[in-house]
Amino acid sequence: MRTTILSLASFALLALGSAARAQQADTLNTRQQHIVTIAAATALGDIGNLKTSLVRGLDGGMTVNEIKELLVHAYAYCGFPRSLRALQTFMDVLDDRKAQGITDTAGREVSPVDDPRDKYTRGAELLEKLSGTPKDAPKTGYAAFAPIIEQYLKEHLFCDIFERDLLTWQERELATVSILTALGEGVEPMLKSHAAISLRQGITEGALCQMTKIVNGLKNGDPFARGMLMRDNPNFTDKAWLQGYVAPEDGFDCSVSSVTFAPGCRNSWHSHRGGQILLCTSGKGYYQEKGQPIRLLLPGDVVKIAPDVIHWHGAAPDSKFTHIAIGTQTDKGGVTWMEPVTDEEYSGFEGE
Ligand code: MN
Predict the structure, then answer these.
(1) Is the dihedral of CA 245, 247, 250, 251 positive or negative?
(2) Residue 28: how many CB atoms within 10 A of its CB?
(3) How is 156-212 classified by DSSP, letter by letter?
(4) Residue 102: which domain range?
């Protein structure tokens, strides 16, 4: 079952109208990506990816208290066992970092709430603002069938938890749709309603699609299949996503990153002063050295590009393509970009 969030999000957009669409970025920012991966890895019980995501979140500036809040929030959607395991994992990560001499920022504590009204009233009001559904609408479905759960949702989830200001409502919704996407089959009605609330809270359809990609990457066991859309990069003909893992400044005399090309997208002719190695991980791609025929690239293929050899790489016309790019001997220098690959050059693939 692979319900796309796109269709759910489209449905919600139609239902909400354009007024609800704030001027928001069409991609997730770095902090939002950390929230998605931490929440999804928590729901999946994927301790390895959770550790990696927690480290990235801390390195990316999330405070210890914000991450704790995220792991606590998760219990409402994927249960205490997952939430408690995630908190234990977070404790291990913090201990490891302390032993390495890394000082993590605790961050501020939650603000006290000064509201004398009962929790049900406060929770009902918050949910109304969050979802846009009037709080006095007649109770139907599970709320009419089992009123106690509706009371718990209002008093506990939407009052006790949502009133805590360490995460914004938008961040809580993003975490929620990430968890529901990770859970997948069987929770589609909840994913649909939270996708609608997310859009209402200013998360765009594009950002929801990116969330789905990241979570599916985790579920399919390809932790490298993610990245940020590169904006206005003149050396790429179309959309491409980049995720850096090792930078030349890290001191290993190499760089490692994952690049995903949209179908038909390729980079310009270029050369690397210290050479480059490509490890092809998914999809179908092309590689060409100046004066040589185009070579088809498939998952598992390795391309060794000697220093200063002029070449280009990219996706085939009918498939996305992802490779890990290893820049070798980066101390010798970086990339020299040249002219774009013309449509005529790109269409020169003769098959293998
Ligand atoms: Mn290259």
Answers:
(1) positive
(2) 25
(3) IIIIIITT-TTS-HHHHHHHHHHHHHHH-TT-HHHHHHHHHHHHHTT--HHHHHHHH
(4) 2-110+164-219
Q: Check residue 226 and give its pLDDT.
A: 57
In a domain, 317, yes or no: yes
Whether residue 298 sits in one domain with residue 170 = no
Whole-angstrom Cα Rg for the chain: 23
**Cβ atoms within 10 Å, residue 68:** 18
Q: Are residues 302 and 204 in the same domain?
A: no
CA of 276 to the centre of ligand 1 (A): 6
58 token code pair: 């801390």
Domain membership of residue 236 (yes or no) is: yes
pLDDT score for 351: 78
Residue appearing with tokens 């009204």: 117
- The confidence score (pLDDT) of residue 12 equals 40
Q: How close is the Cα of 313 to the center of ligand 1, in Å?
A: 6
In whole angstroms, what is the distance from residue 322 CA to residue 339 CA? 23
Instruction: Name which of 190, 162, 166 is nearest 177 in CA terms.
Output: 190
Helix (H, G, I), strand (E, B) or coil at 105: coil
- Compute, in angstroms, the gap from residue 331 CA to the centroid of ligand 1: 16
Backbone angles phi, psi at 235, to 5 degrees: -90, 5
Report which of 79, 163, 62 is spatially closest to residue 118, judged by C-alpha positions: 163
Total Cβ atoms within 10 A of residue 162: 21
Task: Using a CB cutoff of 5 Å, list residues around ligand 1, an ion.
Answer: 276
Ligand 1 centre from 196 Cα, in Å?
41
Q: What is the mean pLDDT of each run of 10 residues along the chain (352 residues)?
A: 41 39 70 97 94 94 98 97 98 97 96 96 97 91 94 97 97 98 91 96 93 85 64 90 86 94 96 98 95 96 98 96 96 96 94 70
Collapsing DSSP states into helix, strand and coil, what is residue 321? strand
Q: Which residue has the tokens 């709080």?
A: 135
Enter the pTM of the model.
Answer: 0.63
